[in-house]
Automatic annotation (TrEMBL):
Name of the featured protein: Asparagine--tRNA ligase
Gene that this sequence comes from: asnS
Lineage: Bacteria, Bacillati, Bacillota, Clostridia, Eubacteriales
UniProt source species: Proteinivorax tanatarense
MF GO annotations: asparagine-tRNA ligase activity; ATP binding; catalytic activity, acting on a protein; nucleic acid binding; transferase activity
GO cellular component terms, A-Z: cytoplasm
Reaction(s) catalysed (UniProt annotation): tRNA(Asn) + L-asparagine + ATP = L-asparaginyl-tRNA(Asn) + AMP + diphosphate + H(+)
Amino acid sequence: MLHTSIEEIAKYNGKEVKLQGWLYNLRSSGKIHFLQVRDGSGFIQGVMVKNDVGEELFNKVKEMSQESSVTVEGIVKEDHRAPSGYELSITNVELVHKADEYPISKKEHGTDFLMDHRHLWLRSPRQVAIMKIRDTLVKATRDFFHKDGFTLVDAPILTPSSCEGTTTLFETDYFDTKAYLSQSGQLYMEAAALALGKVYCFGPTFRAEKSKTRRHLIEFWMIEPEMAYVEFEENLQIQENYLTYIVEEVLEHNKKELEVLDRDLTKLESIKAPFPRITYDKAIELLQEKGEDIKWGDDFGAPHETIIAEQFQKPVFVTHYPTKIKSFYMKPDPQRPEVVLAADLLAPEGYGEIIGGSERISSLDLLMERVEQENLPLDAYQWYIDLRKYGSVPHSGFGLGLERTVAWVCGLDHIRETIPFPRMLNRMYP
């Protein structure tokens, strides 16, 4: 008996195989059972005919409950009507464990109920599809950077200071002092880039931001590359190539999952570098023309980002933001110091910012000026200041939010479905 997975079922057309998984759904029509079986790699329908397996086994299967764990044996048959392209003509079913009455049924459940049962909701076809696409994006990220000579460097999660201000930090006791959960690994990546040239970190970050929007999580994952001897323009090109690559990988490897999500593939197929660009100045003019109450020097909210992105079919860079609304480490434009050499990349279809990046300040004097302006504690940032004393070079980097990218690629209404166990303002269970 050949033991295989549903994902590999096409290799065994016409052969008898064994699957180990769970009974996702069971329906009967007279002397025929239709079993929907899942095994983590996919879903397949098995057909059991009473006359073929005998009355005892047929009746035994009738008593099996949803999500009972089972071992199924059967002959693989090609069937173009089936979602997987194949069906199983069942010869035997062995019950491993009979599940209690399953709380998630096919009827409509409220979001709170589903989130309370997230540990079980993950088993549904839609959630499995999202997790597999997330996995592809993670693998594609690692492949892209390793192919281009980047070194993965792990940034600490406990930090002595903030990267972008202290108002949204989680504070914790660290023996006899205070520490914070990291908002970003970027400052540490700057140190690593001066050691290794091109680096990236990929890990969890935390924002104690009291936001309930469909774009925000409290705990999320960031990909943060940092590159020595890379200036603003080259930084944007790397971002374009990276995003194009990971979307292409999803299109190549996750067509089945995208179909489960009813994703419009043409929207993703158009994601090719280069991406359009608009300056902050022009974006303000555009928003004012659209009737928005906004003036130069204001930051953009979600509605503003949506309006800007609607003007383009691809992701769009908004560049040269006012220095005063951006982080202290961003390099001012030498030709126009009131704006910085920074850009946010806005995803189409109303998904907002998915990448933020900039060229960093490499001048010690200018960095000290910005540290003083922001009233940052010198002792906490001394190590970062040292980087401008010992072989400083032009360098740039960016950060991509994995969950926002998953939401956009999958076409999801809310970011809470993009991570296995979301942490939100009013939710830390399960």
